[in-house]
């Protein structure tokens, strides 16, 4: 059943944080472009990661074998890559994964063959205009209806200067960074507006370096990319995901005590900023090498700039709802073009639970309360981060809540409900699918 009923309860215990979704996409793509065998370790098969794996398979990457570490449900995937892509299936289904779609579109320009990209849910209408402007300039043919998926692309990408906005999605920049080093000439990526989500570009530059690709970064305004480079295969272990850890970190603050394992404290993930935010809000947090421990705390509201950490907003809205005073989330307009309109989704659903959240054009103003009423049905809006945030909000509810659309978690974290129950979350078994 796609619905869960949760009886409010404090969560506590230890949790293995799942691997970073952002780094998993990137590692699979880099491995797929490197001659020889690459072992990408510590993957989970969420819907988004399955979409990228299948997409790379369609482009000729051989997924040689999969080793299971059954006790952890994580996998090591052996990829046999090749930069001379061979299109085996001209239809690439990106499901609901913005990363898969925006990272793989430029590959059509690498092959010159016709490729059709499909998707579902909100993905069919998430913006792709920065790519269309490049295609127009380079005479690459593309076809879609009213700007929506399916999108057909055909034509070769030529090296040169690429102008790209920095404030729609950093995913366009990452997508181009994968393919421009493989063209037969040098390119420059010019960022025409202030770049948001810089942390994600850092992740791309770092993993490219590990796979032997060099890109010169001129203060995030311009990236110089030499052509004719070669990806080198190798072993890559994906580190824990700070965006997912944020749900458990907040759960520990609202509940009792949670220890998060497998996070790298030297990580480049932008969402590592959750640690600073919790500290600024007076949350009790201890950081010891790769173990992060949080304890129940009465937090206070602060101003949070979401431009570098958009994926944290749903769970930070939950924390703000039960913190002392006012929490303001600013520079968050981009949240409207994610899996749901996240500003509308989280304010609507938290208000149903009894919170006081005001939706602004580009942010949220939240007046904190001691606890939430609960006792109602709320919906995930088919968005994994909304479903997970509402689950954590249940900790501070007086009465049980029902979450519809709970399967949305499969997009990034298929074992979320099991982990929630493992930490003491009380889910009515009859509602578990
Ligand atoms: O590059 C990535 O891995 C991502 C970039 C971010 O998107 P935007 O750059 O569109 O904000 C983030 O929201 C998304 O979940 C993952
Ligand atoms: C926005 C997200 O992912 P994507 O853009 O890859 O769909 C997300 O995981 O919150």
TrEMBL record:
- What are the residue boundaries of the Enolpyruvate transferase domain, all occurrences included? 8-419
The residues that hold phosphoenolpyruvate are: 21, 98, 126, 171, 342, 385, 411
Q: Which InterPro entries match?
A: Enolpyruvate_Tfrase_dom, Enolpyruvate_Tfrase_sf, EPSP_synthase, EPSP_synthase_CS, RNA3'P_cycl/enolpyr_Trfase_a/b
Q: Name one GO molecular function term.
A: 3-phosphoshikimate 1-carboxyvinyltransferase activity
- EC id: 2.5.1.19
Catalytic residue list: 311 (proton acceptor)
Assembly and partners are described as: Monomer.
The free-text function statement in the UniProt record for this protein reads:
Catalyzes the transfer of the enolpyruvyl moiety of phosphoenolpyruvate (PEP) to the 5-hydroxyl of shikimate-3-phosphate (S3P) to produce enolpyruvyl shikimate-3-phosphate and inorganic phosphate.
Would you tell me the protein name for this molecule? 3-phosphoshikimate 1-carboxyvinyltransferase
Say which species the protein is native to.
Maledivibacter halophilus
**Name of encoding gene:** aroA
């Amino acid at each position: 059943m796609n619905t869960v009923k949760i009886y409010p309860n404090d969560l506590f215990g230890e949790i293995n944080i799942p691997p970073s979704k952002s780094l998993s996409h990137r590692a699979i793509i880099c491995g797929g472009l490197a001659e020889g065998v690459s072992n990408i370790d510590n993957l989970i098969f969420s819907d988004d990661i399955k979409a990228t794996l299948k997409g790379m398979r369609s482009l000729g990457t051989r997924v040689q074998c999969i080793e299971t570490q059954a006790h952890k449900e994580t996998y090591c995937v052996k990829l046999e890559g090749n930069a001379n892509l061979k299109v085996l299936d001209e239809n690439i289904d990106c499901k609901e994964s913005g990363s898969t779609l925006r990272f793989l579109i430029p590959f059509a320009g690498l092959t010159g063959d016709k490729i059709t990209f499909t998707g579902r849910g909100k993905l069919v209408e998430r913006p792709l205009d920065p790519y269309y402007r490049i295609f127009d300039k380079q005479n690459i043919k593309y076809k879609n209806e009213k700007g929506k998926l399916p999108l057909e692309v055909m034509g070769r990408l030529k090296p040169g200067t690429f102008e790209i906005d920095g404030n729609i999605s950093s995913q366009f920049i990452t997508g181009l960074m994968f393919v421009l080093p493989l063209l037969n000439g040098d390119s420059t990526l010019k960022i025409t507006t202030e770049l948001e989500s810089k942390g994600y570009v850092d992740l791309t530059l770092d993993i490219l370096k590990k796979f032997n690709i060099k890109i010169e970064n001129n203060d995030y305004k311009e990236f110089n990319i030499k052509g004719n480079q070669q990806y080198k295969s190798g072993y890559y272990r994906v580190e824990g995901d700070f965006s997912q850890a944020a749900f458990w970190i907040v759960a520990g603050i609202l509940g009792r005590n949670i220890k998060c394992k497998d996070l790298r404290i030297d990580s480049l993930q932008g969402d590592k900023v959750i640690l600073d935010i919790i500290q600024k809000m007076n949350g009790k947090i201890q950081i010891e090498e790769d173990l992060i421990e949080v304890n129940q705390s009465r937090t206070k509201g602060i101003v949070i700039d979401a431009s570098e950490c958009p994926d944290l907003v749903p769970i930070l809205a939950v924390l703000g709802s039960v913190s002392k005073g006012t929490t303001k989330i600013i520079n968050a307009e981009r949240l409207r073009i994610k899996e749901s309109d996240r500003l509308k989704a989280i304010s609507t659903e938290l208000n149903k639970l009894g919170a006081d959240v005001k939706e602004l054009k580009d942010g949220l103003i939240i007046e904190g309360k001691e606890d939430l009423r609960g006792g109602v049905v709320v919906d995930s809006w088919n968005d994994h981060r909304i479903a997970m945030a509402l689950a954590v909000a249940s900790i501070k509810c007086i009465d049980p809540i029902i979450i519809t659309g709970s399967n949305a978690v499969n997009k990034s974290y298929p074992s979320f409900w099991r982990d929630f129950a493992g930490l003491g979350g009380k889910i009515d078994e009859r509602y578990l699918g």
